[in-house]
Each structure stands twice: as C-alpha cells, then as structure tokens.
Amino acid sequence: MGNASIAGVAQPAADLAALLEAVARRSDRAAFEKLFQHFAPRVRAYMRRLGCSAEQAEELAQETMVSLWRYAARYDPAKASPSTWIFTIARNLRIDSFRHESRPQIDPDDPALVPAPAPTPDTALHERLDGARIRAAMAGLPPEQREVVRLSFFEHDSHAAMAARLGVPLGTIKSRLRLAFQRMRVVLADLEGARP
C-alpha cells in the first residue's frame, strides 16, 4: 500500500509513517484519529475476508488500533511500511483469537476434575490397619523373600530384572515370590480374624 487515502485524499506511505511517529513521540490524538479513520475500516474488511463474523471483525479492528496506539514507538520504517506493520498486528491478533476459540472449555463438573471424596473416618482407620498388617506380614518374611516382594511391588521390577539384580536364577526368584505369597496369605488371614 504505497499510496493510501485519509479522508478521501491520497496519502503516501511517508505521510502514514509521519502520523505513526507523531503518535509514538507525542501521543498525538489528531494523528491517531487520522490513522484510525484510514486503517480501522480496512482492518475490519481484512478480518471479514479471513472469515470473521462482523462482531469479531469489529472487535479485532478495535484491538488492532489500540495496539497501534500503545506500541507506535515500536514501529520501524526501515523494516516495514505502516500498512504492513498494522496488518501484521491485525493478523497476529486474529491468530491469538483463533487459538483462544479453539481451546476446549473446561467443564468444572467433569468427574475427572472433581477430587475424590475424603475417606470416612472408619475407612481411613481400616486402611491404616491394613497397611500395618501388610507391613507386619512383610516383616515376618525371610530377608530374601522380603527383597523380591519389595522389588516386584514397590520398584516394579520384572522377574528377569530381579534375577539379574540379585544374581540368582529366574526360577529362584519365582520360587521366592511364591513362598512369600503363601506365607503372607497365612499371616494376613490370621490377622483378618483379629480385625475390628
């Protein structure tokens, strides 16, 4: 847009740059008004061509002009013409608007966002007692069985990884786990009878 029209009079890009400079240096309202009269309708039409509704186009044109007012000092005539700079602002605002529209709305009632209810006092007590029973059953295991249970359930090691880690055959790992489970089952069944 080498030549532009303000109030029906052809204006070279240099005149538009001078108006931008007046806004940047002196917050010149008259210069801003001329820029607004020239660019606001063009930005609005540009937004409509990009598929915006009339309301969106108006809103984005207004935001573009507000950005022009705020950031006029950032304009560098060596890098772009006034029109290129202003339409770049408009395009970036449209992209931001599109991204915002594309984000899904969060439903506060989504079950995934609702925290689990706090356990009732009796449930919390039973969970603590169950934990204590399991720790007691683990403590009653021979050290080599306790180690394979710990590696399997707390460190999530595979049987092969445990065999390599402990330097024993895979069959030994499986045997130790089987014996540990049998022993724990007996201990936990005895403790279950004593549960309140």
- How much helix is in the residues? 55-70%
- The CATH class designation of the largest domain is Mainly Alpha
- Poorly predicted tracts of residues: 1-10
**Spatial order of strands in the largest sheet:** 1-2
Shape: elongated
CATH homologous superfamily designation of the largest domain: RNA polymerase sigma factor, region 2, helix turn helix motif
User: Given the structure, what is the number of helices?
Assistant: 8
Termini distance?
Answer: 85 Å
- Output the helix-strand order: EEHHHHHHHH
**Tally of distinct domains:** 2
Round the mean pLDDT to the nearest integer and report it. Answer: 84
Number of distinct beta strands:
2
The third-level CATH topology of the largest domain is Rna Polymerase Sigma Factor, Chain: A
How is the biggest beta sheet arranged? 2 strands, antiparallel
Structural class: mainly alpha
Topology:
Blueprint: E1 3-6, E2 9-12, H1 13-26, H2 29-49, H3 54-71, H4 82-102, H5 121-139, H6 143-153, H7 159-166, H8 170-193
Antiparallel strand pairs: 1-2
Helix pairs in contact: 1-2, 2-3, 3-4, 5-8, 6-8, 7-8
Overview features:
two-stranded antiparallel ribbon; 4% strand; Arc Repressor Mutant, subunit A; Rna Polymerase Sigma Factor, Chain: A; mainly alpha; disordered N terminus; 2 strands; single chain; 8 helices; 196 residues
Task: Provide a descriptive summary of the structure in words.
With 196 residues, this protein is mostly helical. The chain folds into 2 domains: 3-102, RNA polymerase sigma factor, region 2, helix turn helix motif (Rna Polymerase Sigma Factor, Chain: A, Orthogonal Bundle); 121-193, Arc Repressor Mutant, subunit A (Orthogonal Bundle). It has helices spanning 13-26, 29-49, 54-71, 82-102, 121-139, 143-153, 159-166, 170-193; strands spanning 3-6, 9-12.
